Amino acid sequence: MLIDYDNVKIFFLSIVFIMPFIIFYLISYNIVKKKDLVARETKRLNDKNVVQLIISNKSSPTILLSLDGDIIYYNDSFSHLFDTNDIDNYVEDNIFVNKFITGGHSHRIIETTYKERYFYVEMMRCNKDIFKGIIISYIDISLIKNVYIKQEEFIKDLKHELRTPISGIIGLSDLLMRVDFDNQDELKKIYYTINDESLRINSIIDNLTANFETNTKKELIDIDYLFDDLNNVYKTRDTNIKIYFRNYVNDNLISDYKLVKQVIINLINNGLQYTSEGYVSIKAYEDINHIYISVRDTGIGMDSKELDLIFDRFYRIDKSRDKHTGGHGLGLNIVKSILVKLNATIDVKSKVNEGSTFTIKFNKNENS
Length: 368
Description:
Blueprint: H1 5-56, E1 62-65, E2 71-74, H2 76-81, H3 84-88, H4 90-93, H5 95-103, E3 107-114, E4 117-127, E5 132-140, H6 142-178, H7 184-210, E6 219-221, H8 223-234, E7 242-247, E8 253-255, H9 257-273, E9 279-286, E10 290-297, H10 304-307, H11 331-341, E11 345-351, E12 355-363
Helix pairs in contact: 6-7, 7-9, 9-11
């Protein structure tokens, strides 16, 4: 077979001529492709940085997870809320997060508690170009929740505390309507009891509303005037338990008159509740730095193990030794909370069958 060398020569010359263009095209294509890859990666990193920047500046604790649940990033607020070990095991230890990841939910809000704080936890799944993953934010609702809890407690306290005196007044009023009393002493005793129960309701309302008062006044308190005021509250009581007031203080006390009066009323009522015979004595005295007001009763007293509990909400001493069936143990709890507002303290000394002494200590430097 004859070879046409001219054609072969032309073929190779064509390849030699075209080859640089082919090589240039391939190189250009690869460069463009690499540039595109770099641009996309740069955009991805930039997007990630933007997302992290946004998350970093959020005040609420926030964490970013991959769609598979791996931790990508969390802000400083999140690290301050959770301990290091808790963050490392965050997904594993949180059932609601696990359910969100595996359940395919797009958005969900739940309520939870952590370190005695209340949170709304918002979980959101993102499939955007800027970020593909899960964003979880913690919104602190402790302030709102505590207000709600306090309202619930207030309603519960009101229901408990008012039931007994109101039932007593209703019962005695019903008795007065159904029975003709010839014995005036007996009739007078019923009137006294109704009056006592009415005063008790008034005291309960003052107690419960005092717990909601956040502002306190600083006013001059003449202790003689305060003791006369208190004496007028109790002088109509039909009881054999005497109430004595003694003032050995020369200086005026500067505090919130209404709240100081309420504290002493609660302590007197506590003494009357647990005293069958004898007296309740209220005494004011002072030293260089403090003014003291003590309330002493000759009642059933308490043993040492009860002294640390009596200021707890709804705590009452052994009912078998309690002559009074009314009350639910709120008085002393409210005393403690009011004294905190007044920057005052209280001390208790007591012995079984020998009575109790509650001593309030006010700092004189509060008067300056």
